[in-house]
Amino acid sequence: MSDPLAANIAEDETGDRRPPVSNRERARRSTPPGSLWFAATAAAIGVVVSLCAGLGTIYVPQLWPAAAGTTPPPPALSSTWPLSGSPTRSTTATPTVPSGPPTGFYRHTGPQGLVTVLPDSFVPGSGKVKGTLVAKDPADPDVEVRFGGDQQGPDSLLETITSAANAEAASPEYTRVALTSTTHQGLPAVEWEFVKPNANGAVRHTRAHYWRANGVEYVLLVTAPPARFPDAAPILAAMTRYSETP
Asked: Quick one: CATH architecture of 5-50+94-241?
């Protein structure tokens, strides 16, 4: 893609410009997805939500009464799931998203129908990276978040993000903190975390969470000065936990 998120994430700074205000909502449904693509979206590692299924006990009733003087067989037990070495996601499991935003957050809808939560002081607006919205507190713009989605590419998610990370590694000022595979509500996901100066020379600590659903590649991202990153990380955790896609 000619304008990948990965290549622009550290440079997309809006300065002190107050972003346009969008309608806030506490429970807005997703909007229909469009068709774009993150060829190399940027950002990082962190918080993970996964599903696992436990041992179930199934009782199989007798079809005919037991013959006199015989002992009915004991109830049958299903096999343990997941089996050793098998995936931890059951194909019949339905991910559960907590209802309602947490205290101090509002629910917002971004590109491709991505619904997430943002701190109530954050104002979303358009950014330079296609397919994402940027949001921050106008009174405290150091901590910034981005969220959205675009049409996924032909490579796997891990290959796409790894390619973007390798491209950033050409810069001597870039430091990779982590690049790992994880899950998002039972779906494969990737988290990428790094430190790099933006176009103005200010060092930024960035973490992004990527996953794919129904042909769309989604991203949730936070970026802040290194000293403020402890304030940013919990925001990404809430955005991830309370996110929904069509």
From this structure: 3-Layer(aba) Sandwich (3.40)
